[in-house]
Amino acid sequence: MFETLSDRLTSVFSSLRSKGRLSDADIDATCREIRIALLEADVSLAVVKDFVARIKERARGAEVSQALNPAQQVVKIVNDELIEILGGETRRLRYAKTPPTVIMLAGLQGSGKTTLAGKLAKWLRDQGHAPLLVACDLQRPNAVQQLSVVAERAEVAVYAPEPGNGVGDPVAVARQSIDHARRQQHDVVIVDTAGRLGIDQELMKQAADIRDAISPDEVLFVVDAMIGQDAVSTAQAFMDGVGFDGVVLTKLDGDARGGAALSVRHVTGRPIMFASTGEKLADFDAFHPDRMAGRILDMGDILTLIEQAQKTFDEEQAAKMAEKLVAGDGFTLDDFLEQMMMVRKMGPIKNLLGMMPGMGQMRDQLNQVDDRDLDRIAAIIRSMTPGERQEPKLINGSRRARIAKGSGVSVTEVSGLVVRFFEAQKMMKRMSQGMGIPGLPGGRN
Ligand code: GDP
């Protein structure tokens, strides 16, 4: 997700790193590079222009010229502005004062709307809600059945006309579903509407009619992030035809260049509220602009990591992990090993590693990581003495040779692990010092 953009921006910043002062020419050159990186990522031109103008204005101001480390300050500015463009504060779902809360989904066919309905339902159920999924796509063959299957997988109730019952009236189904939800004490209703392959008036009218019939608390526009610039024009068309309160980006796991995410809020004025990152029900979460900016700038995503950990482990274990992450220098190879073993339970290792600060640059290696590599790392750490694990600085050349022999790997592998551990430790220490910005990606002051 956003890999190309992330790589480009990271390399722009690394060329600034060695500079003690930034001249106007340096700033102009950096802004030019940022502009190219954004355009290549399919961000719309209007957004790019605004964005770069703001960076330039701030970079030339006092906050940079007086900074001890001007290059870092530029990264901070870009981070701030990225958060801003992604929507600033996390926009949470608004629940109705009197249940049920009604959420209506709109979007093109193939955008991932039905899948998303299931993901959202499961997400709500996990938070203690009792959602009802409503099938109002009565045009596409199988749409009703597809939603029923999704509901079953998400273990939530579904409201749908009987299959084979003819075309039916989606507006009536939507209206009846709200009464049904009240009777059955569902506190959230998710209404899936029909999509077409392209925008058409009939589709818009039907969606608008459903909206008028059920007065949703939230209309969410679902859009496939992989369609690039088209996401913006589609969003605009739905904004004009139906109107919506928030955006859900789907297929962010694909080779998305990030353009849609960075443009849609600016162009429509509506925030991205959720992101979908795969075909499974669990590949879904609320969208946090600050965390996304951090990922784009390759500053890792410690918060998401911690949340994921909380889902997998009990509170106490997670709190311990969070504490260690934040404490930075209290973090030893023993912790590293312990975490790695816990992490094995959390899902594909490369996804998790991708969230760690500074790991973005190691993406090619990450793609080759398989869980057996963890066993090699574990073997290396286990061949160290307790003293070495607590104080990895002790691990000199002869100790490395001994450890390599003990764990059946090469000395280079042992050295690689030690170096990576120090980098991770340093990165965490920086984060814990409340800088928010853990230095330049992969860099040293
Ligand atoms: P709808 O026509 O808008 O209801 O779209 P569907 O929910 O049927 O999804 C269309 C296709 O996209 C299906 O094959 C889904 O499995 C797939 N899909 C949906 N969301 C995601 C996602 O976040 N990532 C990926 N890779 N595929 C997705």
From TrEMBL:
This chain's function reads: Involved in targeting and insertion of nascent membrane proteins into the cytoplasmic membrane. Binds to the hydrophobic signal sequence of the ribosome-nascent chain (RNC) as it emerges from the ribosomes. The SRP-RNC complex is then targeted to the cytoplasmic membrane where it interacts with the SRP receptor FtsY.
Matching InterPro entries, A to Z? AAA+_ATPase (IPR003593), P-loop_NTPase (IPR027417), Signal_recog_part_SRP54_M_sf (IPR036891), Signal_recog_particl_SRP54_hlx (IPR013822), Signal_recog_particle_SRP54_M (IPR004125), SRP (IPR004780), SRP54 (IPR022941), SRP54_GTPase_dom (IPR000897)
Native source species: Planotetraspora kaengkrachanensis
Give any single GO term for biological process.
SRP-dependent cotranslational protein targeting to membrane
User: Recorded E.C. number(s)?
Assistant: 3.6.5.4
What the entry lists under Gene3D superfamilies is as follows:
P-loop containing nucleotide triphosphate hydrolases, Signal recognition particle SRP54, nucleotide-binding domain, Signal recognition particle, SRP54 subunit, M-domain
- What's the protein name? Signal recognition particle protein
Q: Which residues form the SRP54-type proteins GTP-binding domain?
A: 271-284
Record-level Gene Ontology MF annotations: 7S RNA binding; GTP binding; GTPase activity
Keywords of the record: Cytoplasm, GTP-binding, Hydrolase, Nucleotide-binding, Ribonucleoprotein, RNA-binding, Signal recognition particle
- SUBUNIT field: Part of the signal recognition particle protein translocation system, which is composed of SRP and FtsY.
GO CC terms in record: signal recognition particle
Predominant location: cytoplasm
Entry note about domains: Composed of three domains: the N-terminal N domain, which is responsible for interactions with the ribosome, the central G domain, which binds GTP, and the C-terminal M domain, which binds the RNA and the signal sequence of the RNC.
| Compartment(s) where it occurs, according to its Swiss-Prot or TrEMBL record | Cytoplasm
